[in-house]
Specification:
By secondary structure, the protein is an alpha/beta fold. It has helices at about 5-10, 30-35, 45-55, 115-125, 140-150, 160-170, 170-180, 185-205, 230-250, 265-270, 290-295, 315-330, 345-360; strands at about 60, 75-80, 85-90, 95-100, 105-110, 150-155, 210-215, 220, 225, 255-260, 275-280, 300-305, 335. About 40% of the residues lie in helices and about 15% in strands.
């Protein structure tokens, strides 16, 4: 069974030889630096090397077309000290990053503050017909992935996400206020973005056949989703239904959502809108893949293994893998960590985890 067949059949609840063994989530930069000082073999120079070293399957390969601002904003540093630097990213967001510690950016300023900003951003950078959107060698690479039987995806962080991209334009608080203060504007932005993505997708489908469309949302915290299920149905559902209809017309079997935190309230309306795959189900936010399987048997999942356990020791790793083993047996589940690997995890502990997960899946 190819890596592609195993992924698609697992998600759709069809018989498989075994679940995929991916090692999807890699280490923080500071984690990698730690491992280089520990027992990690010197020949391992990238995360791809690590995946191959442990015999992982080849996971999703993203078609690298431009689905965000085109042209992208020039990435440039505006100000820096010994401890931090302020920069403009490819979306035009002004951010501050620490230099010596791993953390989320401090978001200082977003590119769209009003309707005039939106119209300018839309007209200058969100034109679906820009020829640069399809630049690069993605056609050659996609052809190679098909020949090798790798699963292929369309859409990646942070360029494709109905809520995720809205907040990338307006900012977290500003976009949430806009849902109530200017709902027509929210509809307008979401509708334009969806039309742009589908237009580019249509061009891609002339040259490649993906298996998976990913929507990056990150719309949940530990306390639950940032908008209500009713707001999802009003604003996001129409866009999701358009994407699902496109996927169905073109034989793309998987529509998935990446959202951190606790998505329990938002899962039912997402599934009704055509979503059949979600990740990463963070344990720290109260997610238990066993319980999600019982409540939503038609939903395929990836993630759900508590990354924090990897820092605690081998016995704790064994207990965590034992906890998720019933979900593995039920199917429609790709056992994975619930996010990137923090720098309190030693190489020895990670290697033990990878080896034990491989044994659990009988690779």
């Amino acid at each position: 069974m190819t890596d592609r067949e195993r992924f698609v059949r697992c998600v759709l609840g069809q018989p498989v030889d075994r679940p995929p063994f991916w090692l999807y989530w890699g280490p923080w930069a500071t984690t990698w630096q730690r491992w280089q000082k520990e027992a990690m073999p010197a020949q391992l120079q990238s995360w791809g090397d690590v995946q191959r070293y442990f015999g992982a399957d080849v996971g999703l390969q993203a078609i690298n077309v431009n689905l965000g601002p085109c042209p992208k904003f020039e990435w440039k540093i505006l100000e820096e000290t010994d401890e931090w630097y302020i920069f403009i990213d490819s979306w035009g967001i002004k951010r501050r990053n620490l230099k010596h510690n791993e953390s989320m950016s401090e978001f200082i300023e977003f590119p769209v503050k009003n309707r005039d900003d939106w119209k300018r951003f839309r007209d200058e950078r969100l034109n679906p017909s820009s020829p640069d959107r399809l630049a690069g060698d993605w056609q050659i690479r996609a052809g190679e992935w098909v020949e090798r039987g790798y699963p292929i995806q369309l859409g990646t962080f942070p360029d494709v996400g109905v809520f995720g991209t809205l907040r990338w334009l307006l900012g977290d608080e500003e976009c949430l206020i806009a849902f109530c203060a200017d709902p027509e504007w929210v509809h307008e932005i979401m509708d334009h973005l969806t039309s742009m993505w589908l237009s580019v997708f249509e061009q891609v489908l002339k040259r490649a056949q993906p298996d998976f469309i990913e929507l990056w949302e990150d719309m949940c915290s530990k306390q639950g989703p940032l908008i209500s299920p009713a707001h999802f149905d009003e604003f996001m559902r129409p866009c999701y239904l358009r994407v699902r209809a496109f996927a169905d017309r073109h034989g793309i079997p998987v529509l998935g959502v990446d959202t951190d935190g606790d998505p329990s309230l938002i899962v039912p309306p997402m599934m009704r809108a055509g979503v059949n795959f979600m990740f990463p189900f963070e344990v720290a936010a109260g997610c238990d893949v066993n319980e999600y399987q019982k409540r939503h048997p038609g939903l395929a999942m990836m993630g759900g293994i508590d990354k924090r356990v990897l820092a605690q020791g081998k016995a704790e790793i064994d207990r965590e893998l034992l906890r998720i083993a019933p979900a593995v047996r039920r199917g429609r589940y790709i056992p994975e960590l619930d996010h990137l690997i923090p720098d309190d995890v030693s190489w020895d502990n990670f290697a033990y985890y990878a080896q034990q997960l491989r044994k659990l899946l009988e690779v």
